[in-house]
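User: I'm preparing a small set of examples for a lab meeting where we compare how different chains pack in three dimensions. I only have the primary sequence for this one, and I'd like the structure in token form so I can line it up with the others. Please keep the answer compact; I'll paste it straight into my notes.
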Amino acid sequence: MMKLRIKTLLAATSLLLAPLFAAAAQTAANITEFTLGNGMKIIVNEDHRAPTVAHMIWYRVGAVDERNGTTGLAHALEHMMFKGTTHLKPGEFSRRVAALGGRENAFTSRDYTAYFQQIEQSRLEAVMALEADRMANLVFDKNEFANEIRVIMEERRLRTDDQPQALLFEALNATAFAVHPYRNPIIGWMDDLEHMTVEDVKAWHDQWYAPNNATMVVSGDVQPQQVRRLAEKYFGKLKPKTLVRTRPQNEPEQKGIKRVTVKAPAENPYLMLAFKVPALRDVEKDDEALALDVLAAVLDGYDNARLGARLVRTERVANEAGASYSGVGRGPAQFILDGTPAAGTTTEQLEGRLRAEVTRIAQEGVSEEELKRVKTQLIASQVYKRDSVFGQAMEIGVMEMSGLSYRDIDRIIERLRDVTPQQVQAVAQKYFGDDALTVATLVPLPISEKPPVAPPAGLRH
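Assistant: Understood. Below is the structure token output for the 461-residue chain.
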């Protein structure tokens, strides 16, 4: 599981802002949207710099839609989507994309599941036909499922159970959220995987995989009319489904600090502090979410940001220290501070030092000069994510699946530029008390002498 931490891709100066904003505006102007009669949304992002295309199908269903006893279904179906249709044998989807000279994969998140191909632009029709086929005609073979669920369980062992920081992050979420489905891991709890059946996965596909729950994003050297014609040809004939969303499981108010300790083989102790904070729901109104984004960048947004400069290089109380915030999602948001204590520093001491850096901002604020430097680099990192056609498709899809719009992308950048020092200081004062905090601590155990286990065959992503 990747930790979402704001890191700039390059050192930018204020002189870069004008061309960056011009590039952002040009990107928005090249997007076309339309909807098929069955409810499937199509978004076309024209970028004619190279004869390549990123083709993505996003389903607005992920781990957040699962309930106790069924965790891991969204991810398990992602694996089964490569196991054949009434027209294709298991594995043939991937072989055909490779034969076209393309690359493909898929990923599952808390909020969505997505499938993509990157191909030469003349091959777009072929991959559209493949995706439409598995949306409608997927085969659920018991033997294929039996093999694949073992791959998924081994993936869980490899990427979570045997990775102490991932194990701690899992425990952090399970403790921070009392009822909201974000408390469950995307890959699922092992007990749920052991009891999952092929009928469970088929029911998930039948419930959620429909054109009216999907968004196609095509980014690259294409024309909107061409994409519309192909989308109508291959997806337009598919029937919509009645989508019944379960009631939201809203998180009750937290009444005090929560703590969890994980003991696992590791070289060093590790610490994570998660504070419940507002998410970004309305780009025009949610000033605090934008200020939290800037606060994370002040703490850990560039090479000389506060946490690294003070705790790691100057005072040497931490080997690493970071801050992250992502307000884009269908569920609640968290602001995370984390770090590895240096020799001679305890996790308790590092916890105090991490919180002290936020308190310093709450009490003293940030200068206009520091904020200008931070925002310049933060905005540069946002814009440079669009350097590839795939990066543009990803950003569009994430926004759409999270309840925002691709139209908000440029507006977010504009509003980040307008965040004031007073707004950053205000969120530092408001959201970092004990009643919003969950602390997760990794206690290292001796590392086994056993050689590392090779990734299981069939591990895709």
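A couple of notes for your slides: The mean pLDDT is 91. The chain has two domains: 24-234, 258-445.

User: Perfect, thanks.
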